[in-house]
């Protein structure tokens, strides 16, 4: 959800980051080079499992992770975004993968070199059943 009280620039940045996040959940994007281009070279993730992922780890595993070809789909809801700085957007949302819920937080950074918005940091926190 984009806060309509935000400036048009903020709304555009949040929309671009949200689009990138959702594209990374698309199996076709995960299996292609497009997915890799959406990830910042300094990327770090702390997954819902507690595992720490680097850019290299993610690039190697992206096509086979959840949401990849043949795997369980990623259901996303309650997406919210805020522009923290002209080149930094914070997204939060919930996901369900094969019945497991997680709360997620992503930082998207815009490259000044024309690379566009890229996922810089991601954290998933499992939500207990019930």
Mean pLDDT: 90
Main β-sheet, spatial strand arrangement? 2-1-6-5-4-3
Strand content: 35-45%
Question: What's the main sheet like?
Answer: 6 strands, mixed
- Residue ranges: pLDDT <50 for 5 or more in a row? none
How many beta strands in the DSSP annotation? 6
* SS class: alpha+beta
Secondary-structure element series? HHHEEHEEEE
User: Percent of residues in helical segments?
Assistant: 25-40%
Detailed description of the structure:
The protein has 130 residues and is an alpha+beta fold. The chain is built from four helices and six strands. A six-stranded mixed β-sheet has the order 2-1-6-5-4-3. Strand 3 and strand 4 form a beta hairpin. The model has no long low-confidence stretch (mean pLDDT 90).
Q: What characteristics describe this protein?
A:
single chain, 130 residues, alpha+beta, 4 helices, 43% strand, globular
Structure summarized in a few sentences:
The chain has helices at 8-23, 27-31, 33-37, 55-61, and strands at residues 39-46, 52-54, 74-85, 88-97, 100-111, 116-126.
Task: Describe the secondary-structure layout.
Elements: H1 8-23, H2 27-31, H3 33-37, E1 39-46, E2 52-54, H4 55-61, E3 74-85, E4 88-97, E5 100-111, E6 116-126
Parallel strand pairs: 1-6
Antiparallel strand pairs: 1-2, 3-4, 4-5, 5-6
